[in-house]
Amino acid sequence: MSKWRVGIYLRLSSDDDDDKLESNSITNQRSLINYYLVDKKDIAVYKCYADDGYTGTDFDRPAFQEMMDDIRNRKINCVIVKDLSRLGRNYISVGHFIDDTLPRYKIRFIAINDNVDSFLRPESMNSLEVYFKNLMNESFAKDISKKVRTSFEISKKNGNFIGVVAPFGYLKDPYDCHKFIIDKEAEKIVKKIFKLALNGISRQDIANELNKSHIPTPSKYMKSFCKKKSSIILEEWNVDSIDNILRNRTYIGNLIQGKTTRISHKKHNIVTVPEDEWIVVPDHHKAIIEEEIFEQVQNIVYNRNSRVSSNGKFYKYTGYLKCADCNSTMKKFSRPNSNSIFFYCSTYIKNKECHKHYITENDLDNTLLEIINKYIEVITNLSEKINNDISISYMEYEKENKEFKLIELDKEEQKYRKLINEVKDDYKNDYISKGDYELFKDKYMFQLNKILLEKEELNSSKSNQENIDRINKIKKIGKIDYIDRNIIIELIDRILIHECGDIEVIFKYKNLYEDALRYLKS
Q1: I need a labelling partner for 338 at 20 to 30 A (CA). Which of 121, 232, 260, 351 fits?
Q2: What count of Cα atoms within 13 Å lies in the side-chain half-sphere of residue 15?
Q3: What is the pLDDT of residue 70?
Q4: Domains (ranges, CATH) in the chain?
Q5: 362: left (phi over 0), alpha (psi -120 to 50) or beta
């Protein structure tokens, strides 16, 4: 019976750049150790433990832990590695393993390339060479960690998404994994949540509505088509999951990364990064929610002075009334034993650093009713002028089928982006000369720029049509007899209250007239 029952330990880590060195491959490590054991008659291999793709900065690796169990259960009494770096790159942890764990269990330790053997050369375990090699391995891990982190930071700032899964509502672009395309099914859920919030529905009631309709949470939705299992599956919507959607500026086209980080290359604890240190790249992808709508929802839902009534809805003016001087929220009050409601500037209430800007709800309703009806009247007059000319333009718009053209142009854009990437790879791999590379690249870039220009023109034309649709929508509202929240949401961005009691209304789509007239001239 052999004296030594050996556990062969192998490790490969992409974090350490091991995968770039053929000499560090799992196959190479195994071959080197097997060659070493050929003439060792007193050694028998009990098991081979391989951690493929695990970092060396800690011992939280499945195969290593399995080997430790076998050490504790006395199944092996010898551990062999190619070199000390395979054991790990954390000087303190590796030092503790060599100086404490192995002697405690009377384990023979062999690191072939480092000429370490605790049985044949006991002095090799305590040599300065082992000390410095462990220290160098840790320094190497720290250096690699810093380089990887710096590389990721640069990539993020250049607008490249480096996450595993795209945010809910999007998918990774199949032609460029650093970009997003819209996931049509998830997009519907995101839009529904914002629409409910815009209509004054509380976050809890939104969650209840989604659960009642059996709409999957982001983690459940992801699980239904993603091969990689999510660590935590949220079964039902709640206020926090609604917040994650409503506060996420990804939906207005921003790429947001760097929200969390690891403490160091040794400690993998994840900590939150302050919001002002996040890496934000605007206009990275197509927005699901208009920025104007997004900001309005923030104002409605997260305004400190917002109050939800007993029916789960917001008061009609919640999130819309602002002091014209300091831009703070107008605070709502009511007199005891009275139905009268009035408003004060919240800054004045807090520290008297602004003026009262006092106004009653009754005066506000009457003035706003007059302003809105005047606005609708002006839009209606403009609509009649537009409709005299629009039939031909609109039929032409339909005939050209711009939506279809945009879809086809998207496909062409992806095609040429793919060709550019392929020719770049061919040049990197020395399949083509630099001259051919420049020739093909210029040719494909010319076609790509033509496509992008055509898309821009089509989108501009489509935007004009959207303005006309808005005008016709406002016309259909007609004259109103009272103020309710739906009218405010439909037409108004914010209402400014001046000290003298004057009311200034900022309507949505303030360039509506100009855009519509531009459409008629085009």
Answers
A1: 351
A2: 23
A3: 95
A4: 4-152 (3.40.50.1390), 158-302 (3.90.1750.20), 360-521 (no CATH)
A5: alpha
**3-class DSSP state of 280:** strand
CA-closest candidate to residue 293, choices 195, 187, 168, 189: 195
DSSP 320-365: TEEETTT-PBEEEEE-TT---EEEEEHHHHHHSSS----EEHHHHH
**Token digits for 238?**
């709640």
Lookup: tokens for 430? 């020395």
**Residue 378 CB partners (closer than 8 Å, separation 6+):** none
CA nearest neighbour of 378 among 507, 233, 228, 200: 507
Q: What's the pLDDT at 201?
A: 84
- Tell me how far CA of residue 32 lies from CA of 88, 110, 263, in angstroms: 18, 13, 36
Buried b or exposed e, range 242-280, using 16+ CB within 10 angstroms: beebbebbbbbbbbbbeeeeeeebbeeeeeeeeeeeebb
pTM of the model: 0.42
**Residue 133 corresponds to which tokens in the numbers above?**
């090699």
Dig out the tokens for 517 from the structure.
């007239």
pLDDT given at position 326: 87
pLDDT at 349: 86
**What is the predicted pLDDT for the residue at 69?**
94
Q: How many CA atoms lie within 13 A of 74 on its CB side?
A: 1
pLDDT recorded at residue 448? 83
Q: Kind and range of the H or E element at 9?
A: strand 4-12
For 59-72, b where at least 16 C-beta lie within 10 A, e where not — what string?
A: bebebbeebbebbe
Q: Which residues contact 268 (CB under 8 A, 6 or more apart)?
A: 57, 58, 60, 262
Structure tokens at 377: 């009247």
Low-confidence residues of the chain: pLDDT under 50: 16-23, 128-132, 134-135, 137, 139-141, 144, 147-148, 227, 229-230, 264-268, 304-305, 310, 392, 394-395, 397-399, 513, 516-517, 519-520
Tokens standing for residue 14: 């992409």
**Residues 206 and 189 sit within 8 Å (Cβ to Cβ):** no
Residue 449: both structure tokens together: 């720029």
Contact call for residues 9 and 79 (beta carbons, < 8 A): yes
